[in-house]
Amino acid sequence: MAHVELQGISKSYGHVVVCRDVNLEIEQGEFVTLLGPSGCGKTTTLNLIAGLDDPSSGDIRMEGRRVNALSPVQRDVAMVFQNYALYPHMTVAENIGFTLRLRGIRKAAIRARVEEVAASLELGDLLGRLPAQLSGGQQQRVAIGRALVREPKVFLFDEPFSNLDAALRLRMRAEVKELHQRLGVTSIFVTHDQEEAMSVSDRIAVMHHGRVEQFGTPEEIYASPATRYVATFIGSPQIELFTAVIERNGDEAALRIGPARIDLPAESYPGLAEGSAEGSKVEVGIRAEHVALADRGIAATVRLVQPVGPSTHVTLDWEGGTIVARLNGFARVERGSRVHLDLDTRHLLLFDRKTGQRIAAH
């Protein structure tokens, strides 16, 4: 296992800046995911950690040692790619043991290690098969086994499940998480899938335009997003943001969104009470599970009803805009019906309109 640090890492290709001042500290045995949309710099960051590319500035350290000039082999990292890259003419056993053979390890030792790794990945009965005779999930496990057999200090996963169907993706997530819990090897995972990241990670680095917007646990980035971008990128259904005008009544602060007034105790939002003038504006959002239908409250009209298994997503129009409520079970509401909204104000997310930074509640 290795402790990995990225200190002020930036990467440019000519005038194009791909990574900007990335700072991360990944603990020994931790599972960290680099999460973001295509083009945000997450795969470039992974390649820099692997030694497949050189940073334009900054240092990469493993176990306290600067490794910028070291090759992937010298860094002792193993990488699993989106493309399995298996040798089609080699059996499963030969694919898994190939790197050990290159090292000149004795055949008996290779066979023993391959069988051990294959058993841990439930590939023991498939060692004599060729890749073409395997399912997509089995091929991905062979690729993981080829990395695992080396006993590296760091595992690097570059969107390894992108070519799998939905059911296999779910299974492979669980398998990778169980494997990490069993082995405890420092692992860095790249994905654009927020659900995938939330389900497997100890911590997540949300990336945007080459920068790390927030680095924290799944709970932290979901419940306490540091920026407007993180709030809108994380969560399904996506959070809606509204422009709210600050109003005051003595020591109490309130938000005016369209015709609706939402009362906020001033002591809970000192940034509003002390740093914002009457009539100034902020952006406010609330996640779907904190929106309920009630007998009284904010008037709204049902636009769309989407049953999604154990819950129902109800899209509602009101004078402040559009909002989604996540209701338990199969909600008995119809499109076009008039309802009322009840917002749990303890979970409002407020953001500065200029900087996009969250105004944290006390």
Shape: elongated
The count of DSSP E runs of length 2 or more, i.e. the number of strands, is: 21
Assign the CATH architecture of the largest domain: 3-Layer(aba) Sandwich
Q: Point out poorly predicted stretches.
A: none
- State the secondary-structure class: alpha+beta
- Placed side by side, the strands forming the largest sheet appear as 6-7-8-3-9-10
How many alpha or pi helices? 10
- What is the mean predicted local confidence, pLDDT? 89
CATH fold name of the largest domain = Rossmann fold
In total, how many domains does the architecture comprise? Answer: 2
Q: Evaluate the radius of gyration.
A: 25 Å
CATH H-level homologous superfamily name of the largest domain: P-loop containing nucleotide triphosphate hydrolases
Strand portion? 35-45%
Question: Would you give an account of this structure?
Answer:
This protein has helices spanning 42-50, 72-75, 92-102, 107-120, 136-148, 166-183, 194-200, 218-223, 228-233, 270-275; strands spanning 4-13, 16-26, 31-35, 57-62, 65-66, 77-80, 154-158, 186-191, 203-208, 211-216, 241-249, 252-257, 260-265, 281-285, 291-294, 298-308, 311-318, 321-328, 338-343, 349-351, 358-359. By secondary structure, it is an alpha+beta fold. It folds into two domains: 4-225, P-loop containing nucleotide triphosphate hydrolases (Rossmann fold); 241-359, Nucleic acid-binding proteins (OB fold (Dihydrolipoamide Acetyltransferase, E2P), Beta Barrel), CATH 2.40.50.140. It has a six-stranded mixed β-sheet, sandwiched between helices. Strand 20 (349-351) and strand 21 (358-359) form a beta hairpin. Helix 3 (92-102) packs across helix 4 (107-120) and helix 3 packs parallel to helix 5. The chain is elongated and about 80 Å long.
